[in-house]
């Protein structure tokens, strides 16, 4: 049997004024995903020959707006999804804990719904 590796989810952490700040691996994947999305969108929007009538569906400035909406959709949707789908009773009894995003808790289901809603509002 192959043993499961003991990999810490944190890349590094430090304490400032009693607050423990940590950078986790999944945060890096989100950040890199958003950066790559912006690079890919800008790459294809600059290629006029790809678009009907040589006009892209939106301009390069709108890429920043779209990515802002998507980032908010991921963060808010992921947290709300986690609260609703995984530990609703706990958060119902302790509503202040919902804001403690640094303790973890994101849901793919919530992220998906958040991104769909953010895309709707962007459009």
Describe this structure in words.
The protein contains four helices and two strands, in the order ββαααα. It has one domain. A two-stranded antiparallel sheet has the order 1-2. A hairpin with a 2-residue loop joins strand 1 (10-16) and strand 2 (19-24). It is 55% helix and 11% strand. The N and C termini lie far apart (51 Å).
Domain count: 1
Query: What is the chain-wise order of helices and strands?
Result: EEHHHH
Strand tally:
2
Q: What is the SS-derived class? A: mainly alpha
Cα gyration radius (Å): 19 Å
- The low-pLDDT segments are none
Approximate helicity band: 55-70%
- Number of continuous helical runs: 4
- Taken as a percent bin, the fraction of beta residues is 5-15%
| Beginning-to-end CA distance, first to last residue | 51 Å
Mean pLDDT value = 90
Please tell me what the overall shape is.
Answer: extended
Largest sheet composition: 2 strands, antiparallel
Strand order of the largest sheet: 1-2
Task: Briefly characterize the structure.
This protein is mainly α.
């Amino acid at each position: 049997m192959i043993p499961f590796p003991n990999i810490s989810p944190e890349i590094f952490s430090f304490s400032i004024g009693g607050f423990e700040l940590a950078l986790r691996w999944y945060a890096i994947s989100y950040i890199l995903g958003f950066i790559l999305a912006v690079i890919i969108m800008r790459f294809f929007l600059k290629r006029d020959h790809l678009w009907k009538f040589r006009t892209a569906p939106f301009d390069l400035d709108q890429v920043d707006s779209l990515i802002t909406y998507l980032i908010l959709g991921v963060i808010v949707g992921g947290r709300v999804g986690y609260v609703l789908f995984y530990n609703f009773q706990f958060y119902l009894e302790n509503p202040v804990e919902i804001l403690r995003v640094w303790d973890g808790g994101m849901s793919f289901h919530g992220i998906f719904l958040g991104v769909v809603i953010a895309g709707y509002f962007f459009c």
